[in-house]
Design a protein that fits this description.
With 116 residues, the chain is mainly alpha-helical. It has one domain. Helix content is 80%, strand content 0%. Helix 3 runs antiparallel to helix 4 and helix 4 runs antiparallel to helix 5. The longest helix is centred in the middle third of the chain and has 29 residues.
Protein backbone atom coordinates (compact mmCIF):
# COMPACT_ATOMS: atom_id res chain seq x y z
CA UNK A 1 0.00 0.00 0.00
CA UNK A 2 2.88 2.36 0.75
CA UNK A 3 4.32 1.65 -2.68
CA UNK A 4 1.03 2.55 -4.32
CA UNK A 5 0.84 5.82 -2.42
CA UNK A 6 4.58 6.55 -2.75
CA UNK A 7 4.88 7.01 0.98
CA UNK A 8 7.82 5.91 3.08
CA UNK A 9 6.56 3.36 5.63
CA UNK A 10 9.13 4.49 8.21
CA UNK A 11 7.17 7.72 8.69
CA UNK A 12 4.44 5.73 10.38
CA UNK A 13 6.58 3.31 12.35
CA UNK A 14 9.06 5.80 13.82
CA UNK A 15 6.43 8.06 15.34
CA UNK A 16 4.87 5.16 17.18
CA UNK A 17 8.18 4.14 18.72
CA UNK A 18 9.00 7.76 19.59
CA UNK A 19 5.59 8.18 21.19
CA UNK A 20 6.10 4.93 23.08
CA UNK A 21 9.50 6.16 24.32
CA UNK A 22 7.91 9.40 25.50
CA UNK A 23 5.17 7.45 27.29
CA UNK A 24 7.77 5.17 28.90
CA UNK A 25 9.83 8.17 30.05
CA UNK A 26 6.70 9.77 31.53
CA UNK A 27 5.84 6.54 33.36
CA UNK A 28 9.39 6.37 34.73
CA UNK A 29 9.13 9.95 35.98
CA UNK A 30 5.86 9.09 37.71
CA UNK A 31 7.47 6.11 39.46
CA UNK A 32 10.44 8.26 40.46
CA UNK A 33 8.06 10.84 41.93
CA UNK A 34 6.16 8.11 43.79
CA UNK A 35 9.33 6.67 45.29
CA UNK A 36 10.34 10.15 46.45
CA UNK A 37 6.87 10.83 47.85
CA UNK A 38 7.10 7.58 49.78
CA UNK A 39 9.86 9.37 51.70
CA UNK A 40 7.15 11.37 53.48
CA UNK A 41 6.41 8.35 55.60
CA UNK A 42 8.70 7.23 58.38
CA UNK A 43 8.30 3.65 57.23
CA UNK A 44 10.67 2.08 54.74
CA UNK A 45 8.04 -0.32 53.41
CA UNK A 46 6.48 1.81 50.64
CA UNK A 47 9.92 2.68 49.29
CA UNK A 48 11.12 -0.92 49.42
CA UNK A 49 7.96 -2.25 47.77
CA UNK A 50 8.14 0.24 44.88
CA UNK A 51 11.83 -0.45 44.35
CA UNK A 52 11.39 -4.23 44.51
CA UNK A 53 8.54 -4.22 41.98
CA UNK A 54 10.22 -1.85 39.48
CA UNK A 55 13.95 -2.58 39.81
CA UNK A 56 13.98 -4.94 36.82
CA UNK A 57 11.98 -2.61 34.58
CA UNK A 58 13.43 0.83 35.34
CA UNK A 59 17.21 1.11 35.36
CA UNK A 60 17.62 4.33 37.33
CA UNK A 61 15.15 3.51 40.11
CA UNK A 62 17.93 2.01 42.26
CA UNK A 63 19.67 5.41 42.44
CA UNK A 64 16.44 7.10 43.51
CA UNK A 65 15.78 4.29 45.99
CA UNK A 66 19.17 4.86 47.60
CA UNK A 67 18.55 8.60 47.83
CA UNK A 68 15.15 8.13 49.46
CA UNK A 69 16.39 5.52 51.95
CA UNK A 70 19.35 7.75 52.83
CA UNK A 71 16.95 10.64 53.39
CA UNK A 72 14.69 8.48 55.56
CA UNK A 73 17.64 7.34 57.69
CA UNK A 74 18.67 10.97 58.13
CA UNK A 75 15.10 11.85 59.15
CA UNK A 76 15.10 9.10 61.79
CA UNK A 77 18.39 10.39 63.17
CA UNK A 78 17.08 13.97 63.22
CA UNK A 79 13.89 12.91 64.98
CA UNK A 80 15.81 10.92 67.57
CA UNK A 81 18.20 13.81 68.17
CA UNK A 82 15.42 16.38 68.45
CA UNK A 83 13.45 14.02 70.71
CA UNK A 84 16.50 13.61 72.94
CA UNK A 85 17.04 17.36 73.10
CA UNK A 86 13.34 17.87 73.86
CA UNK A 87 13.47 15.24 76.59
CA UNK A 88 16.63 16.67 78.18
CA UNK A 89 15.72 20.34 78.08
CA UNK A 90 11.90 20.25 77.86
CA UNK A 91 12.08 23.71 76.37
CA UNK A 92 12.52 22.68 72.76
CA UNK A 93 9.56 20.49 71.76
CA UNK A 94 9.18 22.58 68.64
CA UNK A 95 12.24 20.86 67.13
CA UNK A 96 10.09 17.84 66.34
CA UNK A 97 7.64 20.07 64.48
CA UNK A 98 10.48 21.72 62.61
CA UNK A 99 11.65 18.25 61.56
CA UNK A 100 8.20 17.30 60.29
CA UNK A 101 7.92 20.51 58.26
CA UNK A 102 11.48 20.08 56.98
CA UNK A 103 10.63 16.51 55.94
CA UNK A 104 7.61 17.63 53.92
CA UNK A 105 9.34 20.57 52.29
CA UNK A 106 12.43 18.62 51.21
CA UNK A 107 10.34 15.75 49.84
CA UNK A 108 8.13 18.09 47.82
CA UNK A 109 11.17 20.00 46.50
CA UNK A 110 12.78 16.72 45.38
CA UNK A 111 9.60 15.67 43.57
CA UNK A 112 9.38 19.07 41.91
CA UNK A 113 13.01 18.87 40.73
CA UNK A 114 12.36 15.40 39.42
CA UNK A 115 9.36 16.47 37.35
CA UNK A 116 11.10 19.51 35.86
Amino acid sequence: MSKALDVDISLFTETNSEKQNEIDKEKERIWFALIHLSGLFLLFFPTIIIWYKKKDYIKEITNHYRDVVNFQINKWLFYMLSGLISFLFMGFPHLIYVGIVFNGVITIVNCNKLNN
